[in-house]
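Handout, page 2. Input:
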Amino acid sequence: MPGTLYLIPNTLGSTDAVPGALSHIIPEQVQAITAQLDYFVAENAKTARGFLKLIAIGHPLARPLQEIEIAELNVNTPAQALQGLLEPLLAGRDAGLVSEAGVPAVADPGADLVRLAHQHGIPVRPLVGPSSLLLAVMASGLNGQSFAFNGYLPTDAVQRSKRIKELEARSRTEKQTQLLIETPYRNGAMLEALVGACQPGTLICVATDLSLPSETIRTQNGARWKAQLASGKAPDFHKKPTVFLLLAQG
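Output:
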């Protein structure tokens, strides 16, 4: 009988290694399940070990950290390697899939492994934890009944502007909130592109460092963002994980 693949949420940013540090982010039951596992698949083994160190503060690990097996799965992992990552589960061993931040398999390379697990009849159990995308939708005040995540936009300025206008048109037609992310050091360029391409009345939300003490969330129309940027008052979001949302009006 195969083991269970647990989808384990990670924090959305750095967390102090003190007792109770995870209590408001990762439920105790999720921490307890994580502590019982000795095989993990993660985007980055070093980051995963850091997460397990936080878990260990309140929940003793099943084995010493150096003895816990962590296999890496990232954008550079070839498709033919996925089968090998599942072999321990097919042999009856439980495993945890851990993202670099937030929930696994959403804007995350783990989705391919989950699909393959289903094909092999491996039970998949998603665990509760923070998702920057859902937190951003919740806090934006934009349409939470219909929304779409579009990932990264083209880095070329012309292509990026074209794509933003396409998403704005879709938002207007379908009354649908559009979600975007960007490499943190390009957050400023992304906001400027949104302001430049969108209509003045389109609502734009910038949600930064969600669930962290430095969290900031602001929704206003394109005209107000344009005035704010013109006055030199850009959000404090340089090199900070940020979700961008837009909803066309009218």
